[in-house]
Amino acid sequence: MSVRTLRIAMNGVTGRMGHRQHLIRSILAIREQGGVDLGDGTTVWPEPVLVGRREAALHALAREHGLDPGNTSTDLDAVLADDTIDLYFDAQVTSARVDALKKAIAAGKHVYTEKPSATGLGDALELARLARVAGIKHGVVQDKLFLPGLRKLARLVESGFFGRILSVRGEFGYWVFEGDQQQAQRPSWNYRAQDGGGITLDMFPHWEYVLHELFGRVRSVQALTATHVPRRWDEQGEPYTATADDAVYGIFELDGGAVAQLNSSWTVRVNRDELVEFQVDGTEGSAVAGLRGCRVQHRAVTPKPVWDPDVPVTHAFREDWQEVPDNADFDNGFKAQWELFLRHVCADTPYTWDLFAAARGVQLAELGLRSAAEGRRVEVPELTL
């Protein structure tokens, strides 16, 4: 058994997602399991190099997780000039991402990035083109596809369970505190459009790949955005005016004729089993999937509700649904995609979630914002490089 060490410059790991999902639950978890087995007698051992703006925070993070504080840096240019660095990962604020990715590509590093890859389609496509010309491996985080609930939903689609799919309805969101009485769960830049904030830019890239991979390409979008809470408080307790949308309500027409309706909001209180739920209705059956669970109801066992507002409802509709069994061990979705990308880098295994896929997500967000601004349905042209 041989070991191949892969040195990964991880930029933005002091932030919420970079720290929890990518460093702790992905890279460190992969190290705890002994690396990634390529199946040919080789194990990939990820060696993180922590990059950020605050040296003290990076050193503290390294010590907390038993890493060498010497493998930290506040100088991205110096890190990218290091020939021992194989891969660059970006989990910074969105507004800083394009320049950093361009530098990494120019340095010949493989790149893996959080979404969105850019705040505009032009930059997103340029990144994809630069990566193709450079001949590097490149990928974008599309974690929802690897969640247990969505994997069960994909299994149902592939098996033909739904018959002809008619509609997809999704609800995502939770109440993000304003920051005055209780600390906000999201960073303040999320609510500043000038810093790449806004829930449309955050969530529409997710919805693009979920819809594209499971149900069909998005052909048109009609969206309504809102800034429901215009005044918030930042990390220093100072009030500021929110300039970005905190809710977006979208309708998407898909290839094949299905219609998706997806609501995304940071100003909604949860009355669901999970923070995100999708209901898929087809001619032969329906399913409701969340992050982990998935319930189904087949045509043959669908009850016959009758609308009568003058009679109390006594039927327990939720009891008519059947839970889809796991039938497999589901790992953390971020970690599962990291393992696939590391195999892609080291063994050239197939990988489709690249910077071009990222550009499709940015395109949908951009067109969603245009639809909201112009008050009309907007066609989504098929992208080419």
**If you compute it from the alpha carbons, what radius of gyration comes out, rounded to the nearest whole angstrom?**
22 Å
Order of helices and strands: EHEEHEHEHEHEHEHEEEEEEEEEHHE
Instruction: Pick out the low-confidence regions.
Output: none
Estimate the mean pLDDT confidence. Answer: 96
Shape: globular
The helix/strand class is alpha/beta
Count of DSSP helices? Answer: 9
Helical percentage: 25-40%
Q: Find the count of extended strands (DSSP E, 2+ residues).
A: 18
Strand order across the largest sheet? 17-16-15-14-8-13-12-9-18
Give a quick account of the main beta sheet: strands, pairing sense, barrel closure: 9 strands, mixed
The portion of residues forming beta strands comes to 15-25%
Measure the end-to-end span. Answer: 40 Å
Tell me about this structure.
By secondary structure, the chain is α/β, with parallel strands linked by helices. It contains nine helices and 18 strands. The strands form three sheets. It has a nine-stranded mixed β-sheet. Strands 1, 2, 3, 4, 5, 6 and 7 form a seven-stranded mixed β-sheet that branches. A two-stranded antiparallel ribbon has the order 10-11. Strand 15 (285-289) and strand 16 form a beta hairpin. Helix 1 packs across helix 8 (333-347). The radius of gyration is 22 Å and the shape is globular. The model has no long low-confidence stretch (mean pLDDT 96).
